[in-house]
Amino acid sequence: MWFLADEPAAQAGGIEGMLVTYGPLVLMFVVLYFLLIRPQQKKQKTRSSMLSALKKGDKVVTIGGLHGTIAEITDDTIVLRVNDVTKLTFERSAVNAVSASSQAAAEEKK
Hints:
It is a single-pass membrane protein. This is Preprotein translocase subunit YajC. Keywords: Cell membrane, Membrane, Protein transport, Translocation, Transmembrane, Transmembrane helix, Transport. This protein is α+β, with helices and mostly antiparallel strands. 48% of the residues lie in helices and 25% in strands. The protein has helices at residues 7-12, 14-52, 102-109; strands at residues 59-62, 67-73, 77-81, 87-91, 95-100. It is rod-shaped and about 75 Å long.
């Protein structure tokens, strides 16, 4: 019956016992939120704004590494002009990065 002797001591420290028990779990969740979840949400937000800001004439790079200029754009698809003859159709979400916007390309030609 040695385990009954520790029972009153465990009941006396109710709040402290819960803090010791659940504190590390809460701390671990807070650390994971600031190290993993929050940066991922920011990255998703910037990607979404980049995809919504695409316009005709932008030079883009797809997820597969294809470089091209946007010839046509709709809500969910884009048509890339790879060279003078070749035009390829992609989903809008396949764009990985914008290498030059249409305004920057116009300034380069001047």
